[in-house]
Amino acid sequence: MINPSAPDYDNTPVSSKRPSFFYYPKDFLAAPYVTIITPFYNTGPIFHETAKSVLQQSFQQWEWLIINDGSNDPEAIQVLEHYRHCDPRIRVIDHDVNKGLSAARNTGFRLARTSYVVQLDSDDLLEPTAIEKWLWFLESHPEYGFVKGYSVGFGAQEYLWEKGFHHGSEFLNENLVDVTTLIRKTVHEQVGGYDESIRQGLEDWEFWLHCANSGFWGATIPEFLNWYRRRPAHDSRWNNWNGEERQRAFHEMLKNRYSKLWKGGFPQIQKKWHKPWEQVSDKIVFENRLEKKKPRLLLIVPWLTMGGADKFNLDLLEQMTQRGWEVTIVTTVEGDHSWAHEFSRFTPDIFILHRFLRLPDYPRFLRYLIQSRNPDVVLVSNSELGYLLLPYLHAYCPEPAYIDFCHMEEENWKNGGYPRLSVGYQELLDLNIVASNHLKHWMIKRGADASIIEVCYINVDPERWKPDQEVWSRVRKQLGIAEETTVILYSGRLCPQKQPRVFAQVMKRLSDLKYNFIAIVAGDGEDRLWLENYLRRHSLDRHVRLLGSVSPDRMRELMAASDIFFLPSKWEGIALSIYEAMACGLAVVGADVGGQRELVIEGCGILLPPGDEESEVKQYTQALSQLLKDSTRRLAMGQQARLRICQQFRLEMMGDRMEELFKKAIDLHSTKPRSSVSKAVGLACANLAVEYVRIYNVTDWLWLEREKGKKTADPPVPYIPLRMRFYVYLVRLFYPLYRWGKKRGWFWLDTFKNIIKQKLNVS
User: Fold this and answer.
1) Euclidean distance between CA atoms 114 and 720, whole angstroms
2) 117 DSSP β-pair partners
3) How far, in Å, CA of 688 to CA of 114, rounded?
4) Phi, psi of 94, rounded to the nearest 5 degrees
5) What pLDDT, in 10s, does the model give residues 538-551?
6) DSSP per residue, 685-707
7) Pick from 203-207, 273-277, 497-501, 530-534: least confident
8) pTM score, two decimals?
9) 203-213 helix and 245-257 helix, angle to the nearest 10 degrees
């Protein structure tokens, strides 16, 4: 999976830098569900890369028809000979003479034994999960005739291409996609296939418009799923693709052939929306049974974004793959998945469900995935839908051990948040894993069975997060901070949980006390505007720097350049940022909430009890004042903090502990199986779960619309500096006199006005 913000065009789907997964069919002779067709004409050794990208597909029940279109190059023929005998799923079909791409593809469609056909040229590449996602998209969206994803251009030209079938009638102006697509075979049959008279390129453009003219159209999965190899100049082989007269003539031919499309007749396919009480299908259309050589984990999470729980998921993924586990990841919530590329560094088996499935198909896809991958453990972490589907998964897939991981309770969200769900569904979980003893006791008080709740601290890598004098000097120089200035770091989402208002008031009091400090704020959120206005209103700009959201690498640098970490949270489990700060040797000042006392003990930080806002501001001001005045104590506290991390909270200790608990869960699943669920009850629960999520999404949307309407009706009053307000007051008071004097030629009034504006620094 390519990183859109920093693409590495050398890291192709067949690169040795990519993580591996043992995608290997249980039965090579099992009936295929999809046909791949590839025209081949003198391609040469580069075809091995295309073949590798096919052979390592996550969906393995395919047949591959390679159409040898009259190749006459000895080296190319030798390359092709290898694939005639290497795999029973591969068939090489020979044309006696070269007939062109259109004829080769039509041959493939005629001989295809399945209802779905992937078009793949002989020098292009597929991402490992491409075919599986395309298949399930068309199964979930019967209104579409074909589908593809975004494309990566590589070779002579390098770029990311996000245009596609979702641009609809823009295809009337140009061909917006390469040919790598999954098509329903019936669509090809009903339009009569490719026009075999077109042999100079752009035959696929004609085919797409032919489909549109017949009422068929496609969709785009918003994910980079194929790599399109670019030549220095495509018109060297395809004369129609020269951007000049021949291409214009081809365009005119299309306009004449499919004129109704230019007269408003382009198909407008309406996406099938989730209806109230739409039933979850009990049928799984595809099988994809894979062999297994290593233990496997299925991780069900809400999203792949930046946050403490998400960073733990990423750390867990890295730790388990290092220990030989293969990991599949499924996300269940629409939203920000900006860290997906980070997770793809350790596994290719990642499925962001909303990108290719309708909500009613989530349950059966999860069931299909468990049957396909045969995981030893299914782990639910912060996924509400994951909990709600446990009865369904238990009923249809009783083989794996089911466990969960909870970070913290949230009393003000759904009566306790995910730990409340964990307690409620404990009968269906072989093991509960929590991030602190505090949370374990909270769950026991709520009625959970203590014997199957285990604690695993999330920990941190002290080799990544560590003091670094070179970074300390470089970052301070970048930010213009003197060596003798004490730096306080406040990082996290700017939201009520992290109490930016308490932070701001504490900074004001420290400023009033004339301490030499700079506070760095690394984070963003709904309270940022309030914080900016507060800092401006109290002239705290010289003491507080707002950096916004920063990358994990930049956060490490900021911690290395800081002295104190300050996090006055209302609630936490144990904040990951505190683990990181302690590993970097910072003195920690934070809230004595959740399980934080289990990490921050006396001598390596200061934790203060929660209270009302005024008392918290007073306590935090006193604690930070002590550290600002006493650098010796501050340094000693940071050293003890790092020592505690290195001795008891190293990341590999978390990996060892989690693997130990996985094995315990597998053993418990075998020796003390949990309650069984009938398929009828499981399916009923799945229907309720899907309807609950649908209603929740609708009400959430209505709430956001309501809030948007309130903001429109009553916009916030912008902050106006005191000097500007005073200037406006003077203008209103003396404007009649000013006009009277100007009429009498008193031009010195303008000079006087400008002097006042300069003194007040207003424009």
Assistant:
1) 68
2) 35, 183
3) 34
4) -105, 125
5) 999 999 999 998 88
6) HHHHHHHHHHHHHHHHHHHHHHH
7) 273-277
8) 0.89
9) 20
Q: Give the domain ranges of the chain.
A: 34-263, 296-459+659-695, 469-649, 722-760
Instruction: For residue 76, give both structure tokens.
Output: 């190319």
Q: In sequence order, what are the residues at sequence separation of 6 or more whose Cβ sits closer than 8 angstroms to the Cβ of residue 554?
A: 522
Tens digit of each residue's pLDDT (9 = 90 or more) over 240-290:
666 678 889 999 999 999 999 999 999 999 888 888 899 999 899 999 999
Query: How is residue 307 written in tokens?
Result: 């946050």
| Residue 3 CB coordination number (10 Å) | 16
Among the listed residues 28, 54, 191, 194, the one whose alpha carbon sits nearest the alpha carbon of residue 122: 54
Q: What is the DSSP letter of 677?
A: -
For residue 200, which phi and psi values (nearest 5 degrees)?
-115, 25
Considering the domain 34-263, what is its CATH architecture?
Alpha-Beta Complex (3.90)
- Apex 191 CA angle, 186 and 193, nearest 5: 85
Tokens for 327? 């990991």
Q: What dihedral do alpha carbons 385, 387, 392, 397 form, nearest 10°?
A: 110
Which whole number is the average pLDDT over 576-597? Answer: 97
- Give the architecture-level CATH label for domain 296-459+659-695: 3-Layer(aba) Sandwich (3.40)
Instruction: Kindly report the number of other CB atoms within 10 A of residue 265's CB atom.
Output: 14
What is the rounded average pLDDT for all residues in the chain?
Answer: 93
Query: Amino acid letter at 353?
Result: L
Going by pLDDT thresholds of 50, 70 and 90, the confidence category of residue 718 is low
Sign of CA dihedral 108, 110, 112, 117: positive
pLDDT in tens, 127-148: 999 999 999 999 999 999 999 9
Match 């350049």 to its residue by tokens: 561
The secondary structure of 69-99 as a DSSP string is ES---HHHHHHHHHHTTS-TTEEEEEESS--
Measured CA to CA, the distance from residue 711 to residue 582 in angstroms comes to 41
Secondary structure (DSSP) of 469-481? HHHHHHHHHHHT-
Whose CA is closest to 585, among 649, 643, 498, 628? Answer: 643
Beta-ladder partners of 545: 520
C-alpha–C-alpha distance, residues 184 and 188, integer Å:
7
CA distance 153 to 229: 6
296-459+659-695 and 469-649, same CATH topology? yes
Q: What distance lies between CA 262 and its chain's CA centroid?
A: 38
Distance CA 655, CA 321 (A): 10
Q: Please name the CATH architecture into which domain 469-649 falls.
A: 3-Layer(aba) Sandwich (3.40)
